[in-house]
Amino acid sequence: MVNETETRTQLEVASQPDMWRTAAARTAPGLMRVLTTPGPLAVVGCGTSWFVAQAVAALRESAGYGPTDAYTATEARLDRMYPELLVLSRSGTTTEICQLLERRPKGTRATAAVAVADTPVARAADDAVVLDYADEQSVVQTRFATSLVVASRAALGEDTEALASSAEAVLGGPLPDGVVEARQSVFLGSGWSIGLAHEAALKLREATLAWSESYPAMEYRHGPVALAEPGTVVWIFGYAPEGLVAQIQSTGATVVDDPLDALVDLVRVHRVALARASRLGLDPDRPRNLTRSVVLERSTL
């Protein structure tokens, strides 16, 4: 049986409040130019970084700085001629991101947010913002991704200290009833928290091989709610559309709908993933079939 307190993933999850304070102080200034210069922007990542890109794009556009689109690297529509491109890659070695930077249109300025300096992604971009303090030994991303969201929110003008304090509280508090034992977990988001809902579901799949799904909150009514039943946990990030909680509860499913910031709520999901992995005898430091970075032979793309 793997003990939650013995994994490096647990240590990295627990470090997030301090990482967030550092992100606001050290990384936000480096992101400010690309995020607050008015005009179109494409934000691109793969895996967890794609979901972070979705959150950052929604936050920037909502802040009034212009149309902001999030893409996974192989589906990025750079033919739309964005003047600015922000790419996210923890390792700085992701093959699809490297190739995207190679084929970006002339005149598109690229900024890379990475955890490791002097890597292929960092060298290929025009500017590099390095979150080396938030780098991880773990395969499963936690603190790098959340620190990048905090840095982006700070760059867009938000005071993020309350986020760090709230994360400290949830790291030491109880988990909602039934979430560790759930047979099926569903995460629902709205606006910028949709990307975090997708990331929460991914964390459970990666660390615990769990049946987890994610949707924009209003879309859950359009089919997926048919699977809700006792043993299902539906976790709402952000606001719950009117009547949705009662509709889900009528199926016998459990609803988690707490007034927490969605990013802070994601930290609770990290804890659920660790606790469930321990319960199942899985090692979250060594998730099945995964590596820290996806580096491919050119012939496979």
- Oligomerization: single chain
Count of DSSP strands: 9
Principal-axis shape: globular
Instruction: Give the strand line-up of the largest sheet.
Output: 2-1-3-4-5
Percent helix, as a range, is 40-55%
Architecture of the largest domain in CATH? 3-Layer(aba) Sandwich
Please state the average pLDDT score: 92
Number of DSSP helical runs? 10
Let me know the CATH homologous superfamily of the largest domain: Glucose-6-phosphate isomerase like protein, domain 1
Main beta sheet: 5 strands, parallel
Strand content: 15-25%
Q: What does this 3D model show about the protein?
A:
By secondary structure, the chain is an alpha/beta fold. It has two domains: 4-155, Rossmann fold (3-Layer(aba) Sandwich), CATH 3.40.50; 161-280, 3-Layer(aba) Sandwich (Rossmann fold). The protein is 41% helix and 15% strand. The strands form two sheets. A five-stranded parallel β-sheet has the order 2-1-3-4-5. A four-stranded parallel β-sheet has the order 7-6-8-9. Helix 9 links the parallel strand 8 and strand 9 (254-256). Helix 2 (16-36) crosses helix 6 and helix 8 runs parallel beside helix 10 (262-280). The termini are far apart. 51% of the residues are buried.
